[in-house]
Design a protein that fits this description.
By secondary structure, the protein is of the alpha/beta class. It has nine helices and 14 strands. The longest helix is centred in the C-terminal third of the chain and has 14 residues. The chain is globular, with a radius of gyration of 19 Å. The two termini are 33 Å apart. It binds threonylcarbamoyladenylate (TXA) and magnesium ion.
């Protein structure tokens, strides 16, 4: 039996140079960011971008985030306003994505899925940064997992999350260690009069509002005309069903806990009750219990503030029944 698996290559200057060349040549590379691992392609190469959608079985109406090395490169890709400059100054490089009017016509229309906006982000991970500097092109990169499933927060997760190179997956996985933030970037739409929070993520809504004032809440996620097409109800889904607000485990359940009061048998997202630590552990701990001997995952309540809002958003979507997926 042939094993079709992308090689996991420790990120160093040689492998980063080779990965950058691979991107410029139209290939797919999985790489670490501080949030989750991304599946990267040259955003100006429509064929490469098409292969990203195919590898993930991602619906083509769901646009991708373009990753660039610094704010100047982001300003070349999309049209900034004062609010965008304030947020970029406060949070980049880092886990924040800004949705702005498209500017760089070289970026494939497929990236923004027919919208007249573009999502841009300057990642803070040193490997992602070095890769973007060497590639010299904007890199479109969704999370490196099949559409609707849980995002990878370690190189080893990517192998189990995507097809291998022989069947449309990435040719290589750059290993930069576990992701320190652990939940995806916060997405803010600045293309409208009032900034809209499209996705809770690694930068808290509270911190963003301290810089630019009130954010409008995410639009309702049911119905066809979604402002952020990626905000599907069922998402981030493990294989096993999830039960929220548990206080203990029922027979067959794994129990994910939070804080010092969680029962001793719980796998604790953060023993000390630290939301940053819980976010960094969330996806890898769900993966660790997502199968035999368990037949379901029970999760205790996590405070709905700061990073807890991103954690609860992921848990709520992961817990949606399967027939709600789209
Ligand atoms: O942390 C992250 O953001 C990771 C790492 C790899 O950077 N990427 C990531 O990408 O989570 P993805 O594709 O899994 O999620 C991107 C989200 C989706 O919900 C998508 O709908 C939204 O961003 N998005 C992208 N472009 C958009 C646009 N032009 N307007 C509104 N939403 C957009
Ligand atoms: Mg994703």
């Amino acid at each position: 039996m042939t094993k079709d698996r992308a090689p996991i290559i420790p990120a160093d200057s040689i492998s980063i140079t080779s990965a950058a060349k691979h991107l410029r040549d139209g290939g797919l590379v999985a790489f670490p960011t501080e949030t989750v691992y991304g599946l990267g392609a040259d955003a100006t190469n429509g064929d490469a971008v098409t292969r990203v959608f195919a590898a993930k079985q991602r619906p083509q109406f769901n646009p991708l985030i373009v990753h660039v090395k610094d704010t100047a490169a982001a300003e070349a890709a999309a049209t900034f306003n004062d609010t965008a400059r304030k947020l970029a100054g406060a949070f980049w490089p880092g886990p924040l994505t800004l949705v702005l009017p498209r500017r760089d016509e070289r970026i494939s229309l497929l990236v923004s899925a027919g919208l007249d906006t573009l999502a841009v982000r300057v990642p803070g991970h040193p490997v992602a940064h070095a890769l973007l500097v060497e590639a010299g092109v904007p890199v479109a990169a969704p999370s490196a997992n099949m559409a609707g499933r849980i995002s990878p927060t370690a190189a080893g997760h990517v192998v189990f999350s995507l097809p291998g190179p022989g069947t449309g997956g990435p040719d290589m996985i750059l290993d930069g260690g576990p992701c320190t933030v652990g939940v995806e970037s916060t997405v803010v739409d600045l293309s409208t009069a009032v900034p809209v929070l499209l996705r809770h993520g690694g930068v808290t809504a509270e911190d963003i509002e301290a810089v630019i004032g009130p954010l409008a809440p995410p639009p309702a996620t049911n119905g066809e005309a979604k402002k952020s097409p990626g905000m599907l109800e069922r998402h981030y889904a493990p294989a096993l069903p999830i039960r929220l607000d548990a206080i203990d485990a029922r027979p067959g359940e794994a129990l994910l806990g939070f804080g010092p009061d969680a029962p001793i048998e719980a796998i604790n997202l953060s023993q000390s009750g630290d939301l940053s630590e819980a976010a960094a552990n969330l996806f890898s701990m769900i993966r660790a219990v997502d199968g035999p001997p368990f037949d379901a995952i029970a999760v205790m309540a996590v405070p709905d503030q700061g990073l807890g809002r991103a954690i609860n958003d992921r848990l709520r979507r992961a817990a949606q029944p399967k027939d709600r997926s789209s």
